[in-house]
Amino acid sequence: MRQVLPIGIELSSAFAYPYDYIAELAHQAQHPPGGDHCIGAFNQAVVNLFYGGSQIALLLGEVVKNRGITPPHLANLLFRAVQYMELHILSNTMYPGDFTEPTVWELELARLLNDHSACLKEILLTRSTQTTKYQRYAGLKFVLSFLLPTRPLRVADFGCGGNYGLPGLAINEPFEPIVDHTADSLFTEHVCRPCELVEGLALDQFDPYTQEATTWRLACSLYPSELDTLEQVRAFESRLKSNASIRFLESDLLDLDFDAGRIPSRYFDAVALSTVLYQMGPIDQQQVISSALRVLKPDGLIFIQDFATKYYNSLYNANSLTFDGNWFTQPWAYRSFVAAAATDWEVKEVLRWHNGRCRAVMEGEDFLALLAIQRLTNIRDQEPS
Asked: Which of 19, 62, 204, 381 has its CA 20 to 30 A from that of 143?
């Protein structure tokens, strides 16, 4: 079922039949995220155990039954849950070095299901993948620099995760090198400019500064092959904590309290939704977008970055976002979108990223629409107040 949103964006999520989830795991066994052999071996072990009559089949069946969760999300959540347990519950010193073969994972998963099934089940039923990456905010910085270069900015980050984005932009924390395929390296020109972020509001369901939230976030954010960078990541997080212009508010995006006065209406120049909507069903997606519109200035913009593509509905002559698809087999599936008054609140695809690590960027199909938005924004900014 598709839901049409107030700004003319139509979002959809499809929930598959049980065996589609196993097909996704089998696919990621052959094409693991980041090419990580440990993840590939894990996924193959899950598939082997599923067809071998293991408890894993019952566990996954219960999760699918009780959660509206897409196959790619479940595949990623399952591995992150197990990695979290290996690192922080079992304190397994053999992980990840000894876990590059499916047979090793089969034995370990059998042990987990036998001794810690309740813990694993709780994680799969109650948590969502939280891959907080500051690098992913390069798209937001480009859009802000290109469209709103002369404004002191107020920005809200819906679903901030570890709250890297706005604090990093406020102190102009540099991004890792990005291969720029845009015309005349326009992306690089703007993403390197300072951002005058005078105020930010970061929202998330969990306080990112608690020990529990930190351990879960890092277990989600790092591939096994990246765990040796853990201390660098912690130093980066510590560097961002000192920024006083960014206010964090612990709040569920699906239950925002606008009456308490802590979330102002019609106040922000931009609202960012970075890798948030793919984990939700269409009704929840609509609710989050509606809340974003409520806090946005009339001439502000909504920035959406996710594993999504545009879907055209000829019946209503409107475009939409669909979150159906395989994130890891098709390059350039992670994309940046903008919706604003200048687009009549239709979503425009402005950037495409080679993958969710955001190390290479190219123009989106509506990249030229940025020029029209920029012209209109500049005219409005020059008008007397």
From this structure: 204
Amino acid residing at 334: Y
DSSP secondary structure string, 86-139? IIIIS--TTTTTT--SHHHHHHHHHHHHHHSHHHHHHHHHH-------GGGGHH
Q: 295 vs 201, 259, 376, CA distance in Å?
A: 11, 12, 21
Cβ atoms 32, 22 nearer than 8 A: no
Is residue 16 within 8 Å of 70, Cβ to Cβ?
yes
Residues in CB range of 350: below 8 A, 6 or more apart: 143, 336, 337, 338, 363, 364, 366, 367, 369, 370
Amino acid at 149: P
Which structure tokens are listed for 230?
Answer: 């853990």
Q: Is 3 helix (H, G, I), strand (E, B) or coil?
A: strand
Neighbour count for residue 315 (Cβ, 10 Å):
6
pLDDT, tens only, 282-329: 888 889 999 999 999 999 999 999 999 887 664 444 567 887 666 666
User: For residues 111 and 167, what is the distance between their CA atoms, to the nearest angstrom?
Assistant: 41
Q: Compute how many other C-beta atoms are within 10 angstroms of the C-beta atom of residue 250.
A: 14
Tell me the average pLDDT of the chain: 87
What are the residues facing 197 on neighbouring strands? 153
151-200 per-position pLDDT tens digit: 899 999 999 989 999 999 999 999 999 999 999 999 999 999 988 999 99
User: Which residues contact residue 178 at a Cβ distance below 8 angstroms, ignoring those fewer than 6 apart?
Assistant: 138, 187, 188, 191, 358, 359, 360, 361
DSSP symbol at 198? E
**What's the DSSP call for residue 142?**
H
